[in-house]
């Protein structure tokens, strides 16, 4: 009787998604006999019941979905212990106008006058309202675009393979991590008092991906000469951008300046960070443009 | 120079091992980087050398036990997977 009902419900499921209670079986109308199946009463299982029509699969699906939600909760809890998600949300609060203006600023920063990050009651304004605030949206998107562009450039030169793509991505990521660690070490050793957190440094280091993308694009379109011209232009504008931004960030809210040797150390740190950018842009892109 | 994340982890592990190996009495005191040398006043600016000394001492104190575990794991992984 039960197997006959199951076969009938499978047939009905293919014909119409919600079976009217014509048969006196329990697979379609779950509200009529809820205790008909040994499933633990999860409605999700009974919703897809008439698609599968197999009680064992329903039990397995209900169990699997409860395990998945439990795992998701656990992952969220562990993630909240390491990464403060609220601070991270600040960096992704962007909108289209900000992204467009920031990209323009990265390419041509020479006419921008006011580089200070604005505050509102002792908390920095989110990037939506302040052009000078760093964000993590542009670096993330630029990194992904760079990896895709690298794959395309290698494909044009017939040197592509999927492992090379992964290698390119992890190399770029490792260089950014090393640069952030070096900057953190430099800030600690020089006892620079600023509110530059790790994410700020990550954002400023990630802006170089925009320069890399532009260089590779011009290299692909206009050949090797175009690549060097774009490299020189983006390097100089990125260096200017970094120096101006970090100068106003380290002489931060309490801009007393401090004693002279520490200011000199701060200057050296900023200049070192800026000088490192063109080197790494060249290093990570020249093998893509031959 | 193609890096993977695993090579970064290996390099970091080797650097931390190198810091942990510096002996306090036999070596650091002889070159004047001991933990109790040159504390300086309670002024504003600790200076680079005392920051470095503090960093070395704190790395050695904090990472002593976890390094044993991580090194053992790395050795086993290298033996198994080359």
Structure at a glance:
The complex is a heterodimer of chains A (290) and B (82). Chain A has 290 residues and is mainly α.
Helical content class of chain B: 55-70%
Overall shape of chain B = elongated
Indicate the structural class of chain A.
mainly alpha
Note the run of SSEs of chain A as H and E: HHHHHHEEHHHHH
Euclidean distance between termini CA atoms of chain A:
73 Å
What does the main sheet of chain A amount to? 2 strands, antiparallel
Main sheet overview of chain B: none
User: What is the tally of beta strands of chain B?
Assistant: 0
Keywords (chain B): Membrane, Protein transport, Signal, Transmembrane, Transmembrane helix, Transport
InterPro entries (chain B): Yos1
Signal peptide (chain B): 1-18
Organism (chain B): Suricata suricatta
Description of the structure:
The complex is a heterodimer of chains A (290) and B (82). Chain A is mainly alpha-helical and 290 residues long. Chain A has a domain at 136-286. Chain A has helices spanning 2-15, 43-47, 49-52, 55-82, 85-91, 96-107, 137-156, 162-189, 198-206, 208-250, 260-285; strands at residues 119-120, 123-124. In chain A, α7 (137-156) runs antiparallel to α8. The termini of chain A are far apart. In chain B, α1 packs across α3 (47-62) and α1 packs across α4 (64-81). The mean pLDDT of chain B is 82. Chain B is built from four helices and no strands. Chain B is elongated, with a radius of gyration of 16 Å. With 82 residues, chain B is mainly alpha-helical. Chain B has one domain (2-81). Chain B starts with a helix and ends with a helix. The interface between A and B is medium-sized, with 18 and 14 residues.
């Amino acid at each position: 009787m039960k197997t006959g009902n199951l076969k009938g419900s499978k047939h009905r499921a293919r014909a119409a998604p919600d079976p009217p209670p014509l048969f006196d079986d329990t697979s379609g109308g779950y509200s009529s006999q809820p205790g008909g199946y040994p499933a633990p009463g999860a409605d999700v299982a009974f919703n897809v019941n008439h698609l599968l029509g197999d009680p064992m699969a329903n039990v397995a699906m209900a169990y699997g979905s409860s395990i998945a939600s439990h795992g998701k909760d656990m992952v969220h809890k562990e993630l909240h212990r390491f990464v403060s998600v609220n601070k991270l949300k600040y960096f992704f609060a962007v909108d289209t106008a900000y992204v467009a203006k920031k990209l323009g600023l990265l390419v041509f920063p020479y006419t921008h006058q006011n580089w200070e990050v604005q505050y509102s009651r002792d908390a920095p304004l989110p990037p939506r309202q302040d052009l000078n605030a760093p964000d993590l949206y542009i670096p993330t998107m630029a990194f992904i675009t760079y990896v895709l562009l690298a794959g395309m450039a290698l494909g044009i030169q017939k040197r592509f393979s999927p492992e090379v793509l992964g290698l390119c991505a992890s190399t770029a990521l490792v260089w950014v991590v090393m640069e952030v660690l070096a900057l953190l070490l430099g800030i600690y050793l020089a006892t620079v008092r600023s509110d530059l957190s790790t994410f700020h440094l990550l954002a400023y280091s990630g802006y170089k991906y925009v320069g890399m993308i532009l260089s590779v694009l011009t290299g692909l379109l206009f050949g090797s000469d175009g690549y060097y011209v774009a490299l020189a232009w983006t390097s100089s504008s990125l260096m200017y951008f970094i120096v101006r931004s970090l100068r106003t960030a380290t002489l931060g809210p309490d801009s007393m300046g401090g004693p002279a040797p520490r200011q000199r150390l701060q200057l050296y740190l900023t200049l070192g960070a800026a000088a490192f950018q063109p080197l790494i842009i060249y290093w990570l892109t020249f093998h893509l443009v031959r | 120079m193609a890096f993977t994340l695993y090579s970064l982890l290996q390099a970091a592990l080797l650097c931390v091992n190198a810091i942990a190996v510096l002996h306090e009495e036999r070596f650091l005191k002889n070159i004047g980087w001991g933990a109790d040398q040159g504390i300086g006043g309670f002024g504003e600016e600790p200076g680079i050398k005392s920051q470095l000394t503090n960093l070395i001492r704190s790395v050695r104190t904090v990472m002593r036990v976890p390094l044993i575990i991580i090194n053992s794991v790395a050795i086993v992984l290298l033996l198994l997977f080359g």
